[in-house]
Write a structure and sequence with these properties.
It is built from six helices and six strands. The protein has 158 residues and is an alpha+beta fold. It has a three-stranded antiparallel sheet. Strands 5-4-6 form a three-stranded mixed sheet, with no helix packed on it. The longest helix has 22 residues.
Length: 158
């Protein structure tokens, strides 16, 4: 059941991307499609270099510029989000239509945990409503220490 749902989301996202490219008068190419397909089928966060490595397993001729431009197109059409996570490198993650999550980022090991919390979403909507503000999107990143690193810090200091 979950696999069929994921395949449906992947197919819909591919369709959205192709329509976006066409509606903006851009050329559809096999290389761009391969980059988009590889990215959209991946879960988690990837740098452009990590995505390039994955794509080159299928087509060694694809360059970093093609990967980066495709990631920017995916971001502009709402299927990807670019994140820094308090680092110099940009990371991208696929954002299926209608889905949203937030992040916990460990300052020690760099682990990124994703979470969804309807209470936080409701509070944000309430605050916006109180201020007569229309939210287009938001990013919530909480920085601290994961369980393992917090325990290690505690044992190091004690």
């Amino acid at each position: 059941m979950i696999i069929m749902k994921m395949n449906f989301i992947f197919i819909m996202d591919k369709k959205i991307f192709k329509e976006y490219v066409k509606s903006h008068g851009l050329r559809q190419s096999a290389q761009r499609d391969l980059v988009a397909d590889t990215f959209l089928s991946h879960q988690g966060h990837s740098s452009s270099e990590e995505l390039l490595a994955a794509v080159r397993k299928k087509d060694p001729k694809i360059g970093l510029t093609t990967v980066y431009r495709t990631l920017k197109l995916l971001t502009r059409c709402g299927l990807a989000a670019e994140r820094k996570f308090n680092r110099n490198t940009s990371y991208f993650e696929a954002i299926p239509q209608g889905k949203h999550h937030d992040h916990l980022i460990c300052l020690e090991c760099g682990r990124i945990l994703e979470f969804e919390n309807p209470t936080i979403e409701s509070l944000q909507a309430l605050v916006a409503q109180e201020h007569r503000f229309i939210i287009s999107h938001h990013i919530l990143e909480l920085y601290g220490y994961c369980r393992d690193c917090a325990q290690q810090r505690e044992s190091d200091s004690g």
